[in-house]
Amino acid sequence: MAKHIQLDPHGEVILEQYRSLLPVFQKMEEVIPDRIRGFFEEAGIIVAALEHRVKAEDSLAGKLELKGAKYKDIFDITDILGLRVITFYIDDVDKVASVIERLFEIDWENSIDKRKLHQIDSFGYLSLHYICRIPEETFFDPEHPEVNRIRFEVQMRTVLQHAWANMNHDTGYKSGVEVPKEYLRNLNRLAGMLELADEQFSRIRAELTDYRRRVQGLVASGKLEEVPLDGDTFRSYLELDPFGRLNRRIASVNQAEIQPASLMPFLAVFKGLGCQTLGDVATIIKEYFDAAYQIACYQIGLTDLDIISATLGPQNLCIAYILKIGGGKAGVRMLFDTLNGPADSNEAIAEMLVDQAKDLPFMNQ
Fold first, then answer.
1. 194 within 8 A of 202, measured Cβ to Cβ
2. Can you list the pairs that 169-175 forms with residues at least 24 positions away whose Cβ atoms lie under 8 Å?
3. Torsion over CA: 119, 123, 128, 131 (sign)
4. CB within 8 A of 201, min separation 6: which ones?
5. What gap in Å lies between CA 112 and CA 99, rounded to an integer?
6. Which residues, 6 or more positions from 271, have their beta carbon under 8 angstroms from its beta carbon?
7. Which pTM was predicted?
8. Who's near 245: CB < 8 A, 6+ residues apart?
9. By CB atoms within 10 Å of each CB, which of 59, 155, 198, 320 scores lowest?
10. 199-207 long-range CB contacts below 8 Å, 24 or more apart?
């Protein structure tokens, strides 16, 4: 405790209670974050950070020096143990709050939703603050029954709110000098910009979620020509196993096993071939199915290969398409450069494939 702090007898009693209960606070600091993280995992909630701390003795002493008379005993002080959950999005704050409500008893009378205050300069302080207590059915320590009596604080806010609160506190208060009005006005303008950004991030996420749901519906209904080709739509399309029938036909040549593999790299290939919708990809599958099979028969028909990669079907579709549109060796090399990364060996592979394919039936149709 700092020497300059002078406590009255009542403050000294509370400080002594703090010292005796410090192991309990430390135990709670160990148990509570683990419980919260476990519930977050179950609920599928991803947060930016979960911070926690037990108030240091000198910090508590300073508080007691200023307003110790308002506290009857140590159990009246609700922020000795404090936790802060920092979320990426505004709407996740309420999801986090729901988890906290299920885990702990909430002292609603002393909890506060600062988001409802609506002061013009309140952006960085729009936290939701819950005063909580651990129910015995959640955790009980017979050696420290005080665990279920001690209240603690959980603050919930977004990343931007947290950053602004820290910056504003540093620029506005720690210097000990009143901020001039022109600087305060600029701070408040910046706060408004950050608040708008916070709202827009959540709005964009919601719109993207709606977009993905619409896309999944269109893909499921087979309206592929209405679905633009991008990462989300291609991933949804792959769930329908669009290359499965071709791969199974190729595998039947040698009664081979199909080895699963990621087909997402083919997104860049199809876009490079000029596909703009999933309908364009489906057209290539339909029109070049037999050609891709012919290439595969030439590749593995005289071998005893009993395992093929799931990439073989879409790869041969692209090769057939490139050769039919006149892309030649350069186009095939670009295919392998896109899939595997630029390498000198891709030139030799492309040359071999072009040479093999020139006498196949699909090239003469």
1. no
2. 169/124
3. negative
4. 88, 89, 90
5. 17
6. 229
7. 0.66
8. none
9. 59
10. 199/90, 201/88, 201/89, 201/90, 202/89, 202/90, 202/91, 205/89, 206/91
Residue 207's contacts (CB-CB under 8 Å, 6 or more residues apart) are none
* Rounded mean pLDDT, 130-136: 94
Domains and CATH numbers, the chain: 9-174 (3.30.460.10), 242-364 (no CATH)
Q: How far apart are CA 314 and CA 60, in angstroms?
A: 66
The secondary structure element, H or E, covering residue 219 is helix 181-221
Is pLDDT above 50 for 130? Answer: yes
pLDDT confidence band for 182 (50 / 70 / 90)? confident
| DSSP single-letter state for residue 272 | H
12-41 residues labelled b (16+ CB within 10 A) or e (exposed):
eebbeebeebeebbebbbeebeeebeebbe
Q: Say how far apart CA 100 and CA 83 lie, in whole Å.
A: 11
Q: Give the tokens for residue 126.
A: 């729009």
β-pairing, 105-106 vs 128-133, is antiparallel
DSSP string, 123-189: GGG--EEEEEE--TTT---TT-GGGGT-EEEEEEEEHHHHHHHHHHHHHHTTT-SPPPHHHHHHHHH
Tokens of 294: 């012919």
Residue closest to 237 by CA, chosen among 211, 261, 219: 219
The C-alpha atoms of residue 330 and residue 199 are separated, in whole angstroms, by 48
Best CA proximity match to 280, nearest among 316, 227, 326? 227
Distance (Å, rounded) from C-alpha 329 to C-alpha 333? 6
Average pLDDT of the residues of the chain: 88
